[in-house]
Amino acid sequence: MRTMRRALLVALAWAGPALAQAPVAAPAETPLPRVAIVTTAGTLVVEVETKRAPITAANFLRYVDQKRLDGVSFYRIVKVGPEFGFVQFGPHTDAKRYLPPIKHEPTTQTGLSHTDGTLSVARLGVGTARGEFTISVGDQRRSLDAAPGVPADGQGYAAFARIVEGRDVLTKILDTPVDPAKATNGAFKGEMPAAPVKVITARRVVSR
Asked: Is the pTM value of this prediction over 0.70?
């Protein structure tokens, strides 16, 4: 009996340091939120970069959570070539849907880039972005990333999300026929669709 007890104590003595050195599992990383944008052309699911572009991402999610994008249109189609250009959606002329402007997060700060399927927020001057959102079709880094001369102030658009499902729907939207005479107060002439694709709902995707 004493021999067995002594053997058990020796075994525990050797096991102690090994147990103490066992690596502690790191907590699971919280997944990025996803949003399903249901349109009359189909559904786009986007993953929102709340970690790398927190201000711009939070702004988009406020529009989603407050249902401010329900019923808006893809009112601007800039098609440079097949599978190349960008589309834009948002409240447009519906002023009551807008939230206050946000601080600009350039791509040089976030490390994000306007590759195919990237969402960004449109703006005029730096710090004027609100609720007009673009989606890049094809690689638009030269046009929309922060760089000298893009736009005139070199700060580009703020990228904040990317399409993870429904890329074919984006192509359908880009291919929407435009009305060459249509414009809004003289702007976007030749870029506005005759029959715009509409957003039916924009909702967060609940993880299971």
From this structure: yes
